[in-house]
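User: Could you go from structure to sequence for me? I need the amino acid at each position, not a summary. Structure tokens:
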């Protein structure tokens, strides 16, 4: 495998999430949401290319030809060791919607080469996440209420005292009704699936469990964060239309219903995760613009040490624009000279 990561790469990745978040938030503020996705991806890529790593995008913005940057299979970094898999999401969710809702993050994760799960033709996964002590209690072969009762028992809690984070989407309506009928409190969020997994895995957040259907890219990013936090997670392929179902059945056969644990999605302990808030949320504040500066809030994690850091950064625009190729003003301005 070559050189293993020795330095805390998450502290370098956060520069990439900060850049994407600042560009996305600026264009969102200006009402240019359609342009924000590509601009944020380009900003993230520029920073990733300066990091000493031999990175391959495993979870990206799409396939080669669908997007000009951060496509699956693209090489990022300086080419020096370590060799790593990289998962990116410059703006979680469609920018036209996510820049108008809370809990939107810019995220990057990486792990040893060949260790991040490749979704292949899979587009969606059913996911449940919780705190570490519930690792042996989760079983996706059971229903949501049965799972919640088992998790509550593992945490020495009553099911009625548990809070379940669910992204507020039509496909989750039956899940919400089932949980509420059992007397469970459901915390609906307009977005932020990865955030929900983080809150479920962390102590003291007011969230005990995440349940729902996620995009495969969200599920892998959630798994990297949950693994860094020592949490519990299970996932299973969940095709959402006939085309996806037929494709998966042809590719996988009976393996379509196999359950994937966090160690199946992330087969390494050398995992690094960084996220920056684009909009205000339950964990991080969004990007804050001032006259001559920008403030960002981020979280960085390293699985091997279990360290979680919060990074609040003040970015001076006159300094940044003096050398950066990224337009942080959103006005198409060249760097200051």
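Assistant: Here is the amino acid at each position, in order:
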């Amino acid at each position: 495998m070559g050189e293993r990561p020795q330095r805390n790469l998450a502290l370098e990745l956060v520069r990439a999430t900060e850049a994407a978040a600042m560009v996305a938030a600026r264009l969102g503020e200006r009402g240019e949401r359609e342009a924000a996705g590509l601009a944020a991806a380009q900003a993230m890529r520029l920073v990733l290319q300066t990091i000493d790593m031999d990175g391959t995008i495993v979870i990206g913005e799409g396939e080669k030809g669908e997007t000009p940057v951060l496509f699956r299979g693209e090489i990022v970094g300086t080419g020096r060791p370590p060799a790593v898999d990289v998962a990116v999401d410059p703006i979680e969710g469609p920018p036209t919607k996510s820049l108008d809702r809370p809990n939107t993050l810019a995220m990057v994760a990486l792990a040893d080469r060949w260790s991040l799960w490749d979704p292949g033709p899979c587009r969606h996964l059913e996911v449940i996440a919780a705190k570490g002590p519930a690792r042996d209690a989760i079983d996706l072969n059971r229903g949501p209420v049965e799972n919640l009762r088992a998790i509550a028992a593992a945490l020495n809690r009553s099911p009625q005292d548990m809070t379940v984070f669910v992204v507020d989407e039509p496909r989750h309506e039956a899940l919400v009704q089932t949980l509420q009928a059992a007397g469970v409190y459901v915390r609906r969020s307009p977005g932020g699936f990865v955030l929900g997994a983080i809150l479920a895995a962390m102590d003291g957040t007011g969230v005990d469990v995440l349940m729902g259907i996620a995009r495969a890219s969200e599920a892998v990013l959630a798994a990297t964060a949950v693994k860094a936090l020592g949490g519990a997670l299970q996932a299973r392929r969940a095709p959402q239309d006939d085309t996806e179902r037929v494709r998966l059945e042809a590719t996988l056969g009976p393996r379509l219903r196999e359950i994937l644990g966090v160690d199946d999605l992330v087969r390494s302990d050398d995992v690094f995760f960084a996220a920056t808030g684009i909009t205000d949320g339950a964990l991080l504040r969004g990007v804050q613009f001032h006259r001559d500066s920008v403030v960002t809030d981020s979280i960085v994690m390293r699985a091997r040490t279990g360290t979680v850091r919060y990074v609040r950064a003040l970015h001076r625009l006159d300094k940044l624009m003096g050398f950066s190729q990224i337009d942080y003003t959103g006005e198409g301005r060249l760097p200051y000279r």
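One structural detail worth keeping in mind: The first strand starts at residue 54 and ends at 59.
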